[in-house]
Amino acid sequence: MLAAIELAVHSVCFEMYIFQADGPGEEFRQALVSAAERGVRVRVLLDALGSGGVGDDYWRTLVRVGGEVRMFHPMRSPVALVRDHRKLLACDGRVAFVVGFNVGAVYDGDGVEAGWRDAGVMVEGDAVAQLERLFDEQYQAAGRSRPASARLLRRQEQATIEAGGAVQILPVTPGRGPNCMTRAMEEDLERAGQEKSEVVIISPYMVPTAPLRKAFRRAVRAGAKLDLIVPLQNDVRISQLASRKLYAGFLRAGIQIREYAPQILHAKVFLFPHAVYVGSSNLDPRSLHLNFELMVRLTGREVLEQARADVADLVGHSQLVDRKRWSRSRNPWMRLREEWSFWVLYRIDPWVTAWTVSR
After folding, report:
1. What was the pLDDT predicted at 145?
2. How far apart are CA 138 and CA 145, in angstroms?
3. Chain segment 311-347, per-residue pLDDT in tens
4. What is the DSSP annotation of 260-325?
């Protein structure tokens, strides 16, 4: 990503949920400043909640040399509970990166010996122009006090964007009901059941909505083998507790659960035999209904081979959850905490956000 910024000639579009000034953050700032000094149009879009620790002073040098910086939904905004969780870099209409990681020191490392484990993809060709268009729309929306696309009671659905034979762009927008990503996943799960193939779903915050959980179970009943991989160590404890509330039901349905052990797992990768999804969206109510997210669905042979190798390595560092041992390990206090966490994330957060935005 840094190399792409350094090679940029015309434009850099940089969108990030969490940007921290330490470590890689300083490298990115210097690369963006250098690009602007060369005459490149540099636009930076940061989420005001995720990147709130980096103030205007930090970006003054970039702005002084012609760069542009906007914060998405300042916390005083009436739509402050709707966040921009996308992570995107696009340069010159030539190359783009759709990733799950933020910019911060915790990502330094290989995800095994040190640093969080995450994933992203570099794309070229027609998809880049489409990704830049999505950035433009989001950048303009950030300049309005109350963008219509953030009204949860009527999702302004963006359809899957076909960007060449091997790339589909899945922009997830806030709102109720299914979105383009969950519809595509349900179709791929149905196909996996028909073909009795293997599927691996990796998400750090695994609290799928009821329709998606039903799609998981249907695929397994039809003959698919489904593995869910989640972190053993989690940076958001309430999300881990809510996820564990669902373990018993998943295990009874024949779904395997693995917990990634070496470091915190933050990747969002959904691997099917014929396609892989990569990007920013977790499988929880906030990503699926409350945030702006960005995923790509890739079907090229080379990228599928790379994804299979990465997932195989990840599986090798994960512990299989045994159904009987898991059941014996739960006491009433654990179950109560898990139920409460699930209720907060699955019911209260969406309701409060929808009520606030609809006012």
Report:
1. 52
2. 13
3. 999 999 999 999 999 999 999 999 999 999 999 988 8
4. E-SS-B---EEE-SS-EEEES--BSHIIIIISBEEEEEE--HHHHHHHHHHHHHHHHTEEEPPHHH
- Using DSSP's 3-state secondary structure scheme, residue 286 falls into helix
**CATH number of this structure's domain 2-150, picked from the four choices 3.30.870.10, 3.30.200.20, 3.40.50.2300, 2.130.10.10:** 3.30.870.10
Q: Report how far residue 15's alpha carbon sits from residue 31's, in angstroms, rounded to the nearest whole number.
A: 15
Range 161-341 classified under CATH 2.60.40.290: no
How confident is the model over 75-130, as pLDDT tens digits?
665 556 789 999 999 999 999 999 999 999 999 899 999 999 999 999 999 999 99
Chain region(s) in the chain for CATH 3.30.870.10:
2-150, 161-341
Mean per-residue pLDDT of the chain = 91
Crossing angle for the helix pair 210-222 and 180-195, nearest 10 degrees?
Answer: 10
Under 8 Å CB-to-CB from 146, ≥6 apart: which residues? 77, 78, 79
The first and second tokens of residue 194, run together, are: 């028909």
pLDDT at 197: 97
3 state SS of 30: helix
Q: How many CB atoms lie within 10 A of CB 253?
A: 15
pTM to 2 decimal places: 0.93
